[in-house]
Amino acid sequence: MTEQRTRASLADADTILSVRNLRTYFYTRDGVVPAVDDVSFDIRRGEIVGLVGESGSGKSVTARSIMRLVPVPGRIVSGEMIFQGRDLVGVSEGEMRQLRGAHIGMVLQEPMASLNPVLTIGDQVGELFAYHPDRAPDGSRDDAVAEILQRVRIPDAVRRMTEFPLSFSGGMRQRVCIAIATACRPELVIADEPTTALDVTIQAQVLDLLLALRAELGVSVLFITHDLGVVAEICDSVAVMYAGKIVEYNDVESIFARPQHPYTKALLASLPRLGERLAHLPSIEGQPPDLGDLPPGCSFSPRCPAAIDRCREQAPDATAIPGASGSGHVRCFVAADMLAAGAATANAAPSGSTP
Ligand SMILES: Nc1ncnc2c1ncn2[C@@H]1O[C@H](COP(=O)(O)OP(=O)(O)OP(=O)(O)O)[C@@H](O)[C@H]1O
Ligand SMILES: [Mg+2]
Fold first, then answer.
1. Percentage of the chain with pLDDT > 70?
2. Nearest residue CA, atom 26 of ligand 1?
């Protein structure tokens, strides 16, 4: 444990969150559901990391684990989440309350679910400073709130802060949620499908806003989405989730140019053409597995065109992808064999030859 913690915290001086071997299980009457199973990834300062996968693959449970808001009957079973030198798995609930909102902000898919309909927008943004006085700006609260609303490009902010959420459009409400999530200048924002409920034009505006805030505030973002098109637009690296595990994790260029896992390849093959945008991932043949009743071996093997006998018997461990920065990895026997064969060929090449 100590050794692991040292390794994680030494991963990269610029790493603000290092998730290692995280397991979050639900203990239901029908059995144990491994919703997040041995998940590892890093988020560096100012980096936007995409977490992508089909419905039910464990994306939101990963986000809730980081916020330490896993609903009963779920709980974090093991692993670590080093955030600015502290392991979030072990910190007290009181400490966690100080971190949520001030150091880690969260934006959800449905803005109305996180806004209070009977409080003005100004009060909802300003309320944060009562919880986190150390992050409150100097000067008047109203001036600070207006500035924050202007930062998320809400026109006529001084007047609109006196209005209630219901008089805002869907896109404007999502801007308010982003204002709340970033008001205290957190180091990390977790955005769980923040654009899925919006129409395409508004989606594009919200993505542009997140990119602008990253540039202005240097904030890091964990961006959860179904949509690989969105990933291509704003993410620096991508973790592809399948049945509670990250099956491939790498920088965005490598994922798109040289996908290693058959599931990533299938997702890319079914990506809509340029300009199209789908609300859900295009379907891949077969059904995602029931996490409470996983097949033996690799969970993707029943749907995998590349599966060999071994895949149906044993679950593959994570294999580091050569040349990947940080902790880029793939979880596939076939991909690991191909990577090893590629490395052997490269090593066998006569010196001086060009790759
Ligand atoms: N309250 C719960 N009780 C029992 N199991 C749960 C609960 N919440 C989630 N799970 C299990 O965790 C799995 C992952 O759920 P999660 O919400 O993380 O999926 P997701 O990837 O965010 O999907 P979506 O794209 O639909 O939001 C579910 O498939 C389910 O098996
Ligand atoms: Mg979800």
1. 91
2. 55
